[in-house]
Amino acid sequence: MIALLFPGQGAQSVGMGRALAAEIPAAREAFEEANDALGYDIAGIIFEGPEQRLTATDVCQPAILAVSVAALRAAAQAGLAADLVMGHSLGEYSALVAAGSIGYTEALHLVAERGAAMHAADQARPGTMAALLGVADADVEALCQEAGDAWPANFNCAGQVVASGSVEGIGRLLELAAQRGIRASRLDVGGAFHSPLMQPAAARLRPALDAWTPVEPAPAFLSTTTVAIEPASRLRQVLLDQLVAPVRFGAAVQAALDMGATRFVELGPGRVLSGLVRRVSRDAQLSQVGSPSDLEAVAV
User: Fold this and answer.
1) 58 and 167 part of one domain
2) Fewer CB within 10 A of the terminal residue: the chain, N end or C end?
3) What are the residues facing 131 on neighbouring strands?
4) Same domain, 238 and 112
5) In this structure, are residues 55 and 251 in contact, taking their beta carbons and an 8 Å threshold?
6) Which of 194, 195, 223, 287 is catalytic?
7) How many domains does the chain have?
8) Whole-structure pTM over 0.85, yes or no?
9) Residue 89 known to be catalytic
């Protein structure tokens, strides 16, 4: 059983997907469609930068979607078929494109609005995030409560949790972690993602999601927000809740394993999700598609 994985914001790098576009016509078309849908040369920013523009939330999110879909199309052309799709945060939109639940152009528009909404929420009340390593989930929850204005945002795998909150709240959290000998570091992100501080972004995104008519996912969509197989009727609410709820990636990977998944293929920039899967299961088969050379083994 094969599960496809799609990365979220933070996986970006200038030049991602450029080799795919140069060598695979199906991938190149994905970037051309993104340019047309968004009305500006996002492919140019993806391939050439500048980095500061690429990392801006409103550009970064559709950029990662475009690279993920380019990789998906190249892999499908090489013979990859899947039984399950899942994504980390923004990656859930890429996963739903892979499942045929949302059209690529519509996903680009939704993700562009999502990025703009999250950026606006951060401008109104600045926030940030921090990674805590080697700490149990329950202990991170307690630490966040003690710090105040901080919440667990990403339960990536055992011993790796990301917290989100106001700049002041995360500052207090880092101080508490240092006092108790806990390894922690502030992340370079533009907002308190997956926390109550993103509620204004959810309110802004709701009309766009309400205008979308989801198609039943095929292959099945396993949400890393709810850790459940979600039908079309639930998708708008899942993607809305996702903005303020934590990502439970480790638990979702375990759920996929329990369903019979033996192989995970990461599509898009980077290999972060593959590393997290390895932390959950040493036995899982892993592969990534981010460049043409990755396609040789993709259908094996």
Assistant:
1) no
2) C
3) 162, 185
4) yes
5) no
6) 194
7) 2
8) yes
9) yes
